[in-house]
Amino acid sequence: MNAPVTIDTDNRTSAPTPEDLTLTVRDERFNRDTMPRRWWAGDAFGTAWHNALSATFPRGEAFFIEAVKAHRDGADPKLAEEIRAFVKQEINHTREHIAFNRLAEDHGYDIKAIDKRVGEMLALTKDRPVIVNLAATMALEHYTAMMAQEFLANPQHFKDADPEVRAMWEWHSVEEIEHKGVAFDTWNHATRDWTPFRRWKLRSLMMLIVSFNFFRNRWTDTLELLAQDGITGWKAKWGLFKYLTVKPGVVRRIFPAWLSYFKPGFHPWDHDDRHLIGKYEGEFEAALMPAE
Question: Does the record's keyword annotation contain Hydrolase (predicted)?
């Protein structure tokens, strides 16, 4: 594992993203046939939580793409290339989660209701400044990177899951780690004329807003999916709380990484976790497609 890369102030415009990092588009396909109803180790809570996450990805990742592309003008060649690869990776993620969501719907889960709510929320962003949408994207990309790191570093999360579903989440996690600095580097480029305090204030405020909405909405979405599985009331709420904070406890485990986002001068590549990409890279070797 390489030494962590650090950045000193929010006013620095050169990115600490590793110079030798290459974003690779892995054109993989999963879940075109069947999967178990409770694919997460037969457990309703893990299944519902990840189904709720997956339901947000098609619209959410389209939002990420547009937010980053809106600020690509004038980017240096390396960042411009990374933005192109980021877009291709996110398009593939969208395609695979659409396929996954269809299988979940085949089991009777109302995934479209979550997708509709996400669409209604994103409609509210149409008239706000595009830099705010980039700040929101940057915060949400930090969430995907935190969870990706946790999923790959701690195999217990998907150890007993359906093998093909596990492979999809691992593949997605690899690419989320790989492109975790793109939105942030685009932010550094877009706000290069801002004061350090202004940059820190907006990205920190957006993280707080995004965090509140993320957990409120995913909690509601997951409880609705659990109700469709016959689990309601305090049994559903207590079971979901234990899943998120006790075992496997993904929310508890990512909290230090979440807190680090508020550090002045933070950058996603302060923690170089490329070893996790290499850990799973061999599984996708046949699908590697260098970004153009």
Answer: yes
Type and span of the H or E element at 182? helix 182-190
Q: pLDDT category, 15, cuts 50, 70, 90?
A: low
Number of C-alpha atoms within 13 angstroms, CB side, residue 262?
Answer: 10
The span from the CA of 220 to the CA of 114, in Å, is 10
- The token duo for 156 is 């217990």
Buried/exposed code over 30-68 (b: 16+ C-beta within 10 A; e: otherwise):
bbeeebeebbbbeebbbbbbbbbbbbbbbbbbebbbbbb
Residue 4: which residues within 8 A CB-CB, separation 6 or more?
A: 270, 271, 272
Burial (CB count <10 Å: 0-12, 13-18, 19+), residue 121: middle
pTM of this prediction?
0.90
Q: How many CB atoms within 10 Å of residue 122?
A: 16
Please state which of the ranges 6-15, 61-70, 185-194 shows the lowest mean pLDDT. Answer: 6-15
Please give the domain boundaries of the chain with CATH numbers for all domains.
34-284 (1.10.620)
Q: Report whether pLDDT(292) > 60.
A: no
* CA pair distance 62, 256, nearest whole angstrom: 28
